[in-house]
Write a structure and sequence with these properties.
mainly beta; OB fold (Dihydrolipoamide Acetyltransferase, E2P); 5-stranded antiparallel beta sheet; two-stranded antiparallel sheet; 9 strands
């Protein structure tokens, strides 16, 4: 079971989606270009069946910012977004109020 010290290692931040494109090699994945403060990052997320690329642009989401990069179906992913799901739906974890990109989630 993870400890509180394990949990503290993760950096949760607000990111703004600048662009979203279908993954070239996977039907369920989307490639997102994000603004996290002054930095641009790319993540690959399994949200393609739940969100169109048009509705993702401009959204602010919560990400784990300090994960080691991973190659997912040939595309680099530099973090992970947070989402909730049940048997039929998936929804992104988004801030309730306006807040700057790069803000830490505590």
């Amino acid at each position: 079971m993870p400890t509180i010290e394990d949990f503290k290692k993760f950096e949760f931040k607000i990111a703004e989606i600048e662009s979203a494109e279908p993954h070239p090699n996977a039907d369920k994945l989307t490639v997102l270009k994000l603004r996290v403060g002054d930095l641009q990052k790319q993540i690959v997320a399994g949200i393609r069946l739940h969100y169109t690329t048009e509705e993702l642009k401009g959204k602010k989401i919560v990400i784990i910012d300090n994960l080691e990069p991973a190659i997912i179906r040939g595309v680099e992913s530099q973090g992970m977004l947070l989402a909730a799901s049940d048997e039929t739906k998936l929804t992104l974890v988004i801030p309730e109020r306006e807040i700057a990109s790069g803000a830490r989630v505590k």
